[in-house]
Design a protein that fits this description.
The complex is a heterodimer. Chain A is α/β, with parallel strands linked by helices. Chain A has six helices and six strands. In chain B, strand 4 and strand 5 form a beta hairpin. By secondary structure, chain B is of the alpha+beta class. Classes of the chains: A alpha/beta, B alpha+beta. At the A-B interface, loops of A face helix 5, strand 10, helix 6 and helix 7 of B.
Amino acid sequence: MNHNALALFENPAPRCPVALLLDTSGSMDGPPIQELNQGLQQFFEEVHSDEVARFSVETTLITFGAGGVRQALPFTGMVEHISAPRLRAGGMTPLGGAINLGLHEIQERRAFYKRSGISSYKPWMIVMTDGMPNDDWAGPAARARDLSDQGKMVMLGVGIGDGVDMNLFSQIMPANRPPKHLRGLRFREFFQWLSDSLRSVSQSSPGQAVNLPPTSGWESI
Amino acid sequence: MSWKALHAAVVGRKHLRTGIPCQDAAVARGEPRPWAIACDGRGSAPCSHLGAEAALHHVQNFLAASESLLSALLDSPTCPQRLLIKDLLADGVYRAAAYAQKHCADQHGGTPPDYEFTLLFCVIGKTRSFFLHVGDGAVVAEQNGTLKLLSAPQNGEFANQTTFVRYGKAAPMRAELIPARGLTGLGLFSDGTAERMVQSGTNRPAPAFTSIWEEMRGGTFQRVDLLDFLTRMDWEPKVQDDRCLALLARSEEDDSLIDTPETSVERKEHPHAHIRIRRQSIRTRTSPSLRIRRRKSRKCLQVRLTRV
């Protein structure tokens, strides 16, 4: 028999939806926003170049700051070779609205996977901020923490610079996963860690614990 | 009845890269009683490959010791207590597999959870067949000429979640009896194989199964062909997990089509019995569902012609 003629299904890879909630408020102006832009571009390149992660990871960018809460990029598969949108800083810090939109987008994406018969890994929500929220964050944060506590979402907070109130940020993030403080402007090291982590997730098998790489390269102790 | 059996397990690219041994294990036997088993070791359990391999032997030993139970459940035309015996068989197979974890822990060290695995098992009788499924992977069958998924992957809410056989603990399982009549092919396989051989969303089994069973019956698909098939380049890079496949293919005509009491009587009484037998067989092969599909198809054609 010509075994090559045997038909197999070209099933879609399980997806890993990642929502990046990025602070683009006025205080991020200057080197922070430049470093963030470079780190994002590097993240896009690295995930795209990985032979497994590129088929799994889908990213949405939600900014809060200039222009209010804005979806700068809808969920996009990293199999596409795209450039990260250039972010600019300005405005206030409506973090609650950003979490709200992030939860909504994740929910919609997961519903789309279900309709399309695509399996998925736990969604990731990454919150990066250098200040304090100036909108109603309590409700959206509680919903996000619930999902995290139930093991239905991975939620990670990263504080930037000296202006961030880490005590308040700890109240926003899940108690079992307190926010981390970025050392200096090591955005690129953080995004390197993120792409390595997502690579581990996209290669994981059922029952296999996903060991995330150490955060020592970018975390301020 | 006569069944041909094949099995193979191959290591995935991810395991090759990380130095983890193949955690899939499978075996199939065509005689004296056809049965097949496939196990996939839990990814994070350090010795699950040993557990999966040991489970094959423990279940096989259990089967050898349970022939009277199997015969009562699967071979007798009537079995009033079949639900009770089915539960006993399911419990016995699960415990035999789970005991392999304890045995491995005693022999190699560690604890039973270090040896956990998923389990797919089937055994075929003259009247009924039985299958048991714990965790992901799938069971497919060819019955009355139709390829179907008997048991879908039992995943959790997310892609890398499933359940495992656990020593001393119960696990969600699917244990069912199916009629043996018309059953001509069975396939059991792990989640790695399922990634390309079960269509996600529709849960449709790949047409490749039909071709493979047909070639097995003809003797042109041997173990080396199965290994070739599982190591073909088109599995990767998407499927980087281990892959295993345990297959059973019935190599004789279905007894029910040849030796039914009605046809035997006709053979004795009528000089042209062979013609009648042939007609009877053709009638039997055309199942009611096929006849309905044909009627619908004719109706659709008529509608199309009318519209034109």
